[in-house]
């Protein structure tokens, strides 16, 4: 089977727009120097994926992203034998590709995956840096440029689904949250192509929604949602309609919470 050994399809050609909000770039670079595994913690839509894309570009590394889901098994990461007309052929999974050829493997929301995936991750994320492919009888030593990055949202897990202590303690963690208002407005301006006044209004709406966290809302409006609302408004939709479609409707199905959020937003817009 033809293997693309420099993983060129996974290289990021152009610099992704990423606005640093703290010392995350320096921390990641220091971790990369020692190929330490990194955990990005934070709520949805706050810039974790954009950050890892930016870092992969900055470090000239391919980026293989795997979105974890509850049916994901170790074989989905490591690989499996596939039946072909020529017989049974081994097919490297995305993790094995990064381990063999070098690059950043980003496991998004790893906690969603089945427990057996951690068995695969453990020997890779300690001093051994190896990936045992039991079915194939092979022990793959990680390429010098292999690095594992996972994302993890501490707010969403039940105790049953939380990462094991022995998994958590293998990672360097970088905490993400929604940026401070001036920075968030800068990001919304740039990503939604809107002016500074509209961006600031959207950011103040986000603050209102984030105050309702725990009072019917699991999360306030993310930076991603502000960008969506901004794009709708830039496309000619009225601000009220853009905020309704981009923020209020997607964030909750509860009529009462919607009303409370709507009232808080109306106060912001007044
Ligand atoms: N610091 C930032 N610099 C540039 N863009 C940002 C930044 N933070 C957020 N964004 C914007 O917000 C959007 C959502 O961010 P991203 O997809 O990285 O979120 P995430 O944290 O990975 O969310 P999830 O946990 O849902 O996957 C990005 O597409 C980007 O437009
Ligand atoms: Mg993401």
Automatic annotation (TrEMBL):
Residue stretches spanning the membrane: none
The CbbQ/NirQ/NorQ C-terminal domain, residue ranges: 184-267
MF annotations from Gene Ontology: ATP binding; ATP hydrolysis activity
Domain ATPase dynein-related AAA, residue spans: 37-171
Key words of the record: ATP-binding, Nucleotide-binding
Highest taxon of the lineage: Bacteria
Cell membrane listed as a keyword: no
Family: Belongs to the CbbQ/NirQ/NorQ/GpvN family.
PANTHER family in UniProt: DENITRIFICATION REGULATORY PROTEIN NIRQ, MOXR FAMILY PROTEIN
Protein name: CbbQ/NirQ/NorQ/GpvN family protein
Gene source species: Ancylobacter mangrovi
